[in-house]
Amino acid sequence: MNNGYFKSVLLKNHIAELPKSFLPASAANDMGYYDFFCSSAEKKTTDVCLQNAPAVIMGTGGVASVHLGQSGYSYSTDTWGIRSRTCELDTEYLYYLLQLRLEEIDYFAFEGSGLRHLRKDYIRNMLIDLPKKEVALRIVQI
């Protein structure tokens, strides 16, 4: 969509990947201080902080899930973290965009006959409608 407010771009040109986590899903505990994201849609907690900057955390096994880590959070080994690496894409806008396309991601980006796994290249090669920065900021405020 190129209408002056949005342009279609490849997602991989606008994201950076977080380092792979060393925390298994079992690192979650009920009394943790930091948000802890796993492959499930449920948010858990832990005592370990891996990141402080906003990022999108996606589950890589089972069914599609997407979370927004904002400050002071961790993620398990069965997730994939990405964030904006350009000033054109706001990380929170990316989260809402992926949340909106979650059904598509679950159907097309997960493969396998037993436990399905996320094909990260499907996400990397997604065409997204990238709004002008001021439009994206207005969208996430709504």
TrEMBL record:
<keyword id="KW-0680">Restriction system</keyword>
<comment type="similarity">
    <text>Belongs to the type-I restriction system S methylase family.</text>
</comment>
<dbReference type="InterPro" id="IPR044946">
    <property type="entry name" value="Restrct_endonuc_typeI_TRD_sf"/>
</dbReference>
<dbReference type="GO" id="GO:0009307">
    <property type="term" value="P:DNA restriction-modification system"/>
</dbReference>
<feature type="domain" description="Type I restriction modification DNA specificity">
    <location>
        <begin position="42"/>
        <end position="141"/>
    </location>
</feature>
<keyword id="KW-0238">DNA-binding</keyword>
<dbReference type="InterPro" id="IPR000055">
    <property type="entry name" value="Restrct_endonuc_typeI_TRD"/>
</dbReference>
<dbReference type="GO" id="GO:0003677">
    <property type="term" value="F:DNA binding"/>
</dbReference>
<dbReference type="Pfam" id="PF01420">
    <property type="entry name" value="Methylase_S"/>
</dbReference>
<protein>
    <recommendedName>
        <fullName>Type I restriction modification DNA specificity domain-containing protein</fullName>
    </recommendedName>
</protein>
